[in-house]
């Protein structure tokens, strides 16, 4: 019930009941992840090791994706974890299992030190920091006269394809390489065992696989080690202390980007507890660099104490002003200066450890002098789905898409200000139709994020003619793109579009309070929402469309714009 506002909201009807698609791997029994095993009473994937090894396994990329999707935590198990809470023993079991699975692949933590890892965490901006860093380090490749042969980059989540999470020299590994290494890991974990007394949760070993993110982390280690990567940039998934990436013993440098309140059921609901968890990536004898934290100055005390506790060789709070005022950044948004400054510092530290002479590195005394390779790296950095502008895409003429996957309070504010200011600068004489496409399926503060967006954009002088809310289902036939299957949302809420109706209702209230009247629309999938936006150009109008609220939404929009349904 929309409490009196239903006439202002258009809800797209659908005759097909939308249900979450359960992944089915051809020739592969879905395996139990540790999470599924610990919180679910259902017996799934209980074939014996002999049965498993005798299966005829199809070695295709599609099969690898289906098998990977079977390791996702479903909505029920996530809700159960929230109720149980993350105890210390549970967290320690989680990180210890990553050590054990990696050992069963044949790698010790000491082996992984050969990757020369740069380890980055934070609440917002950590992906951008990794992108800037990767772009800078590419300038120091062997072909450019530098010491680096291959750069590995591990980030999350992906936008369009899972392969985006594992990159070599800036490019996602291709389907054949992903498939090859995916099944090498799958088969090795199926054919090896763990001590029943030490690892009771990993029994029986033939069926139990790491959860989705853990599996991809372990897979990235195998890919990078097998492909001869000699510099690897690792973005933490969640937190730091107990994150799957935190089995690296001797990174060359660690870094923390902007901190904020997020993932509270895992990290705690105070900035102090979140900071404690993030600083868990600090290592003995390793330098640490941290972005300025103007929003949460109390975090600095925790950062200082943890650096001492964990034995960091040095700690520096990076001043954004180390960047020249006129530096060109490949990533849009004023807030990217902070991320770029952090990337400059950690890149310089890493390259120094690789033996690059100081004459070829930045000079930080007085006014910063950046060498040409650093300037080129900052200028050439690209990171899709973050303050990205797409104009006149094929089959979508006359639409300018402003796309950002912001999904935290701080990042939504920053993204909204970027859109508002960019539209004002680019405003033309002709009247553009302005559209918001928004979703946030899994966060309890979704309405609060929408309110922050409204305050930053609408109260800032840019009105939306249409506001569109969709689920994260990719296609109008009710299917997800295989790489975008997500089992961690309530299928009932998706079917009933509960979140979307709540968001539309919240927008109605804000509009009424301000005396405004944008048109609200609810669609059951991304494709239908995008087609509606396209229809607004039928009369020759130009459209500015702002897509925000979720990386899952952004990824789906990019897939639909590509127009290739698998």
Automatic annotation (TrEMBL):
It catalyses: (6S)-5,6,7,8-tetrahydrofolyl-(gamma-L-Glu)(n) + L-glutamate + ATP = (6S)-5,6,7,8-tetrahydrofolyl-(gamma-L-Glu)(n+1) + ADP + phosphate + H(+). It is found in: Cytoplasm; Mitochondrion inner membrane; Mitochondrion matrix. InterPro entries: Folylpolyglutamate_synth, Folylpolyglutamate_synth_CS, Folylpolyglutamate_synth_euk, Mur-like_cat_sf, Mur_ligase_C_dom_sf. Residues 31-41 have a biased composition (Polar residues). It comes from the Eukaryota. Mg(2+) binds at residues 156, 235, 263. Belongs to the folylpolyglutamate synthase family. Catalyzes conversion of folates to polyglutamate derivatives allowing concentration of folate compounds in the cell and the intracellular retention of these cofactors, which are important substrates for most of the folate-dependent enzymes that are involved in one-carbon transfer reactions involved in purine, pyrimidine and amino acid synthesis. PANTHER family: FOLYLPOLYGLUTAMATE SYNTHASE, MITOCHONDRIAL, FOLYLPOLYGLUTAMATE SYNTHASE-RELATED. This is Folylpolyglutamate synthase.
């Amino acid at each position: 019930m929309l409490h009196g506002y239903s006439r202002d909201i258009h809800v797209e009807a659908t005759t097909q009941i939308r249900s979450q698609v359960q992944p089915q791997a051809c020739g592969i029994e879905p395996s139990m992840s540790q999470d599924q095993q610990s919180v679910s009473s259902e017996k799934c994937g209980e074939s014996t090791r002999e049965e498993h090894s005798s299966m005829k396994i199809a070695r295709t990329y599609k099969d690898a994706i289906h098998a990977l999707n079977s390791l996702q935590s479903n909505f029920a198990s996530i809700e159960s974890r929230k109720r149980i809470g993350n105890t210390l023993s549970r967290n320690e079991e989680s990180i210890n299992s990553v050590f054990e699975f990696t050992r069963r692949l044949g790698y010790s933590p000491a082996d992984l030190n050969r990757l020369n890892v740069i380890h980055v965490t934070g609440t917002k901006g950590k992906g951008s920091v990794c992108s800037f860093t990767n772009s800078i380090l590419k300038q120091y490749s062997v072909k450019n006269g530098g010491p680096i042969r291959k750069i590995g980059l591990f980030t999350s989540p992906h936008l369009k394809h899972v392969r985006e999470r594992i990159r070599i020299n800036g490019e996602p590994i291709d389907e054949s390489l992903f498939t090859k290494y995916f099944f090498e890991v799958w088969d090795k974990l199926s054919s090896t065992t763990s001590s029943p007394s030490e690892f009771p949760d990993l029994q029986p070993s033939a069926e139990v696989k790491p959860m989705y993110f853990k599996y991809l982390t372990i897979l990235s280690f195998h890919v990078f080690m097998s492909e001869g990567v000699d510099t690897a940039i690792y973005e933490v998934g969640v937190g730091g202390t107990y994150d799957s990436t935190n089995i690296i013993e001797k990174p060359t440098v660690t870094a923390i980007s902007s901190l904020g309140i997020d993932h509270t059921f895992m990290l705690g609901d105070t900035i102090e507890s979140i900071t404690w968890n993030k600083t868990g990536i600090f290592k003995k004898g390793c330098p640490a660099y941290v972005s300025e934290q103007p929003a949460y100055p109390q975090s600095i005390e925790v950062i200082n104490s943890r650096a001492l506790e964990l034995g960091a060789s040095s700690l520096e709070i990076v001043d954004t002003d180390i960047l020249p005022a006129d530096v060109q950044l490949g990533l849009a948004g004023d807030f990217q200066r902070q991320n770029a400054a952090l990337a400059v510092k950690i890149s310089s530290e890493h390259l120094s450890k690789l033996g690059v002479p100081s004459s070829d590195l930045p000079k930080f005394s007085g006014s910063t002098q950046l060498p040409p390779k650093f300037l080129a790296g900052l200028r050439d950095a690209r990171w899709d789905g973050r303050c990205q502008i797409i104009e006149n895409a094929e089959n979508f003429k006359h639409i300018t898409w402003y796309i950002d996957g912001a999904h935290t309070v701080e990042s939504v504010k920053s993204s909204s200000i970027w859109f508002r200011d960019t539209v004002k600068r680019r405003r033309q004489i002709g009247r553009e139709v302005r559209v918001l496409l928004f979703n946030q399926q899994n966060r309890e503060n979704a309405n609060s994020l929408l309110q922050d967006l409204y305050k930053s954009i609408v109260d800032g002088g840019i009105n939306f003619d249409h506001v569109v809310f969709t689920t994260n289902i990719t296609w109008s036939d009710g299917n997800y793109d295989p790489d975008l299957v997500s089992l961690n949302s309530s299928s009932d809420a998706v079917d009933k579009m509960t979140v979307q109706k709540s968001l539309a209702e919240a927008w109605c209230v804000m509009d009424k309070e301000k005396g405004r009247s944008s048109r609200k629309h609810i669609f059951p999938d991304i494709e239908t929402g995008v087609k509606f936006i396209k229809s607004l150009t039928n009369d020759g109008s130009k459209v500015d469309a702002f897509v925000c609220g979720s990386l899952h939404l952004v990824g789906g929009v990019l897939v639909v714009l590509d127009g290739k349904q698998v």
